[in-house]
Specification:
alpha+beta; single chain; six-stranded mixed sheet
């Protein structure tokens, strides 16, 4: 009797073990070691910076010769952005008539953040099918004669990968109302501090765009702390001389969490009919 029951009990034990294994598999329970997390989805897009030439430069009796009114030029600016395939863009001299016409023309395909509701001149725009707004604020920097101007900073979530990016957009005072180099230096110091703080505290991609009205005089002090790199390259080693890239005054920078390649400075006929600045752009890959 015992010799007959022992094989039967073994068979029953095997059957119960198999049934338990199937049940655990069906409910998703792990039968082996922990499963490795799936790699983060790669995120890539085009970032741009564009000084669109403010409405007060071309509208009214004293408009700049050779340029159409701001409404005509703004429609061209939208076409330029579309041809650039930009997903995020820093806009300078984006004055209220241009800001309002832009939103009326693009509908809900783009969103804009200006930091200060009363001042849209420096704004950040993004395609709403690519990014969602998370947070935004403004940073005070000195402008003409040291007067305060507020520059926007925005935090966006990439819809495809759920990854966060932060971006600051700025415009430094030109010398058209007297020597403004001291105010540009102070603005650069502030912006260097902001981008460094964001990088160290958040460990995500941080970008800065803008019309700096300077070349090496901006690049060298801004990259001194080794946090940001230019879309045009260049270097600023701690124990060596600064090698600024040959460029105009329009810039794009990123920190270590983003790669910038395929830089472009576009001065096409359409761009020249839109503004007195090129549109600059680069392809971004998040690290």
């Amino acid at each position: 009797m015992i010799s007959v029951l022992r094989p039967a009990l073994c068979s029953l034990s095997l059957a119960l073990a198999l049934a338990l294994a199937l049940a655990l598999t069906a409910t998703g329970a792990a039968l082996v070691g922990p499963v490795e997390a799936a790699p983060a989805q790669e995120e890539s897009f085009v970032i741009a910076s564009f000084n669109v030439l403010g409405a007060d430069h071309t509208d009214g009796r004293h408009g700049r010769p050779g340029f159409d009114s701001s409404d005509v030029r703004l429609d061209r600016a939208i076409k330029v952005l579309r041809r650039t395939h930009a997903a995020i863009v820093g806009l300078q001299e984006f004055q209220r008539p241009q800001h309002d016409r832009f939103l009326a023309r693009v509908g809900d395909r783009w969103a804009v953040y200006s930091g200060a509701e009363w001042d849209t001149d420096n704004s950040i725009a993004w395609r709403t099918d690519r990014f969602a707004f998370v947070e935004g604020w403004s940073v005070a920097v000195p402008y003409f004669h040291g007067n305060t101007r507020y520059m926007p900073v925005v935090g966006l979530r990439a819809l495809a990968s759920d990854r966060m990016v932060y971006m600051m957009n700025t415009h430094h005072a030109a010398d058209t109302r007297g020597n403004a180099s001291q105010w540009r230096r102070e603005a650069t110091r502030i912006e260097r501090s902001v981008t460094r703080k964001l990088t160290r505290e958040l460990n995500v991609a941080v970008f800065m765009t803008g019309d700096m009205n300077d070349r090496s005089a901006f690049f060298c002090p801004f990259t001194r702390n080794q946090v940001m790199h230019s879309f045009l390259g260049g270097s600023n080693p701690r124990n060596g001389s600064c090698d600024a890239p040959t460029s105009g005054v329009d810039w794009i920078f990123a920190n270590e969490y983003a790669e910038l390649d395929s830089p472009r400075i576009n001065r096409s006929a359409l761009v020249q009919a839109t503004s007195d600045h090129p549109i600059v752009s680069a392809h971004v890959r998040l690290r």
